[in-house]
Amino acid sequence: MDKAVDEPGSRVAAVTTPADDAFCSIERTVGIVGDRWTLLILRETLIRGATRFGELGESLGIAPNVLTNRLDQLTRSGILEKREYREAGSRPRMAYHPTDAGRELLLVLAALGQWGDDHIPPASGVAETREVAATGQRVRVGFVADPTVLLPTEKVAFVHTPEGAVPGPLHPSGPRY
């Protein structure tokens, strides 16, 4: 594991990666989040708000041992943190909540979703749109030159759409930004 730098005023998060000897940031990041199950777990925690093992297992249909492995990796890597909870009459259990570094991966998920909407949308329409939470205005992920006009991720809502409700961007009647 790498030695994370977390100095005052630093934007470097306390995240560790199994590819700590890699020079490329993409390679180091893919070492943590680069498989299907990990990305889907992040989708469930960051977009849909699932934090409990049972919720994640049920929504994803993932084998318990695979889910345990991925949650352990995300926790060790500083992307999720464990928080204890207890339901009445039950033993204490752990919930998995995104850290600040984990919440920043929302942009990665948005970019993946946007790419999928643009290039491989299902015939029945996109699964989610990305919108300004307060106004419903659709947003797109992109590069910006002026960071003072960035829309904070907490102001963006991922809105689940019923099948066929919103045509994909490549559909003749779909929006194209």
Automatic annotation (TrEMBL):
Signal peptide: none annotated. InterPro entries: ArsR-like_HTH, HTH_HxlR, WH-like_DNA-bd_sf, WH_DNA-bd_sf. PROSITE patterns: HTH_HXLR. Coiled coil: none annotated. Pfam families: HxlR (PF01638). Keywords: DNA-binding, Transcription, Transcription regulation. The keyword Transmembrane helix does not apply. Residues 24-124 form the HTH hxlR-type domain. This is Winged helix-turn-helix transcriptional regulator. It comes from Streptomyces polygonati.
